[in-house]
């Protein structure tokens, strides 16, 4: 505590010094009330179960019919297909390397650039290339064989995911399985839940969605439209309700109805916000409670994210123990290489990949496919 | 990050003592460090290359400035280059001669367009305009609903209909004209730059309404892909500016630099939080410091100005210098500090804070403890802590839920600080004075009290103190 006092004093001085001396007295003219700030949860939550009638197996026809929104045609859920359009940028680098007569410093420069462009990050890139150079020195790789170099690089990257369990875990007891979705704002948590709900209901499982994002305007409505599409039930709270209690109610609801799976949505939050991360800790504690069994805490990560993804993964793991990553928006031009850095530094496996906004645009993660796509 | 960089640079430059010029070898080493720093900040590779070259040209063989260490000199050059690349001035909105001024927002999915639309509307309101929102995102479930809720919150009308984006835009514009609104903001659906169909659609939306401003909304944590995407959107829509969102995170924001360099359009606004009020115009020098990892002193000061009571602070400062700073003053300052967010966050914004302090794991609950201790004192005890004998201290400890050790600690530290703080002028100059290029707006003249009870992006309302 001593340190805190000193620190406060330092900051107080600096700030009061700064405020008083030499700064313009700019007046932030915001006269409008500070609406929309996240409030702590003091009111007892009102949870409303919005049950759909019996859960029929969903066919693609009904899924198209449910939504009055402009629906994109469901894409073919094969990773390389969806990534096909996004080729080109990195392919050039690898072609250069392949086309050279031998492996030299320039080859490594090209590889470094390609990996950096894929958002793999400096640290991981350096390590991976150092390993390759080592192989070259030891004679495991021939300097006259560039294609072999590329193959070795691919193999190295693929091996980074060795031993990972990519499938999602279900509860082994009687109660419902609970999967919790976390992440920063805008990454695709709600959409992922929607897709997963459809997949699971199609697989014959009873699914309950917990609208744990009680902050974002119309978040509940967004999830509700997915619940309809997927034929899943949804439990919502009132705006600003305690997310923990919404999830608790959803699990209780699932248990009482015999539904096997609860997909719990949470509000997007920046990992730097201490209060919000504390809230998430509480959410996790509640999600773990019987009768449900929390088997997955999935961090949803946007493939366009740069190195900040590592910080996100680290903070969320520290707070709620992330069990796996869902990498979304991989159908764009971003390569999502940051997951390699995350795997390298934190050991987090990737479970699912999102490749579009449509209900079918979710595929299991396959390291070989992913790495090949990086190289194509 | 700042101290890591300068520490590293300082180490490299120790050999230069006594020499008149920046040595080539040292500069090269430093440039390697800068390259890594910029890449770790997600600045695009090609942009990094150009920047490094520009910096190298300015540094190699350059004369050693007398008032700066070599490390500082290089940092200064780097900062200048980054600032220049980010654009000298913030974008100034010029309104259409025939209203309404039409603003179109476009970008990838999840970048924050809908929230930014509402924020922009509120911002225009503050400028004295009468904005109108058009919800042309018909793709994402409940997107229009979200915009409607936000519109209600800020008191701005929202138009939408379940037809198609082009029709919505067109009809919304007509409705805005009918209602006499002078600014129209159109939210569109997120779309991939490589989705030909959707890029074509947004082009048609743009053609239908002829926007005066088209802003590309981009997430501050975007990586290397930022450039490709921005270029594609620019090609399709002729962007006028960039809105950078989620700047309140710890992403260094290199994407902003890359986009600005490649697309050549200014960064217009920053979205700095989840509240609709968290929206600012852009200042290049500050983002430059952030990208380099140098702490953002100006933002800190601005934050302080927002949250701090001027009069109180002025008085407190005088008393600090005079040595008459009391525990009451400390309590006031502490409370104001709390409004600005977690201590570690503030510290990270301040350069010149020793590394050990900066890295310290500060528990913000301790701040609450200190507050509780001081509150448990009588007014007399606060003005004159010398009366605090053992039994009083015990009482205070019980009253605040702490221990006498902690109470003693606080009192001892406070006393030392009082002693230290006579003649605190130099410290103030470090923070407050002489930042070149700061935009200056005239003060309102009167000493207004900033409204109390304001919440910051990082705190959650008027909740229980921790």
Question: Brief overview, please?
Answer:
Chain A has 376 residues and is α/β, with parallel strands linked by helices. Chain A is built from 14 helices and 9 strands. Chain A folds into 2 domains: 79 residues, Up-down Bundle (Four Helix Bundle (Hemerythrin (Met), subunit A)); 201 residues, P-loop containing nucleotide triphosphate hydrolases (Rossmann fold).
The low-confidence parts of chain B are 425-466
Low-pLDDT windows of residues of chain A: 18-37, 39-77
By oligomeric state, this entry counts as: heterodimer
Task: Estimate percent helicity of chain A.
Answer: 40-55%
Strand percentage of chain B: 5-15%
Strand content of chain A: 5-15%
* CA-atom Rg of chain B in angstroms: 26 Å
Fraction in helix of chain B: 40-55%
Shape of chain A: elongated
Predict the CATH topology of the largest domain in chain B.
Answer: Rossmann fold
| Order of strands, widest sheet of chain B | 3-2-4-1-5-6-7-8
Structure, described:
The complex is a heterodimer of chains A (376) and B (466). Chain A contains 14 helices and nine strands. Chain A has 376 residues and is α/β, with parallel strands linked by helices. In chain A, α9 (219-230) links the parallel β3 (207-210) and β4 (233-237). In chain A, α5 (105-117) packs antiparallel against α6 and α7 (146-159) packs antiparallel against α14. The longest helix of chain A is centred in the N-terminal third of the chain and has 19 residues, at 2-20. The relative contact order of chain A is 0.16. With 466 residues, chain B is α/β, with parallel strands linked by helices. Helix content of chain B is 53%, strand content 9%. Chain B contains 21 helices and eight strands. In chain B, α3 crosses α4 (70-86) and α5 (113-126) runs parallel beside α6. The radius of gyration of chain B is 26 Å and the shape is flat. The model of chain B is unreliable at 425-466 (pLDDT under 50). At the A-B interface, α1, α5, α9, α11 and α12 of A face α2, α5, α6, α9 and α12 of B.
